[in-house]
Design goal:
Layout: H1 2-13, E1 28-33, H2 38-53, E2 58-63, H3 70-77, E3 83-91, H4 97-114, E4 119-126, H5 129-136, H6 143-160
């Protein structure tokens, strides 16, 4: 049992876990989306939703202006959901804005995670649109599905170690 759990956690890190964990009560998940590159984020949403539907998760959805606002939205909603899936796409441009957005959004999400909030980070940080397309496409790399799977694994881990988590119907 323990060996399988560790094996699945390792697979999650590398985006290879095929089946999500089981839940006695469906988790409530908020997708927090920065839709600046709508065609990319729509694919991320599709991948995440397909993964979350496998566990009958209660899925809610909110859009924010940009990737920098995703962590704030998660913090504001943190008492109402089991976990969060952060979805967005930052494509390098001609200025240093890319570095600021990608670094600071990642830093803030990591900070929230260290506070015990379960977050699957599906914010793509890429050099060009083609890279984004490959990573977002549910039939290619499916990074939206990977982010959802990470969120589900974190809920399971949080529950395993005795932390209360918000499940469907508990808010």
């Amino acid at each position: 049992m323990r060996a399988n759990w560790i094996k699945n956690m390792i697979k999650t890190v590398y985006g290879q876990l095929e089946e999500p964990p089981e839940f006695s009560v469906p988790p409530s998940i908020l997708l927090v989306v920065a839709p600046y590159h709508r065609t990319i984020t729509d694919q991320l949403i599709e991948g995440a939703t397909k993964t979350l539907n496998k566990v009958s998760a209660k899925i809610d959805f909110v859009e924010v202006p940009g990737a920098l606002e995703i962590p704030t939205a998660i913090l504001l909603a943190s008492r109402h959901f089991s976990a969060f899936v952060a979805l967005g796409c930052v494509i390098r441009g001609e200025t240093s804005h890319y570095d600021t957005v990608s670094n600071e959004s990642s830093r803030a999400i990591s900070h929230l995670g260290l506070q015990g909030i379960c977050i699957g980070n599906g914010i793509l940080t890429v050099e060009n649109y083609d890279q984004a397309e490959k990573r977002a496409n549910p039939k290619v790399q499916n990074k939206g599905g990977d982010a959802a799977m990470a969120a589900l694994q974190l809920i399971k881990l949080k529950t395993k170690f005795g932390h209360k988590t918000m499940l469907y119907g508990s808010y």
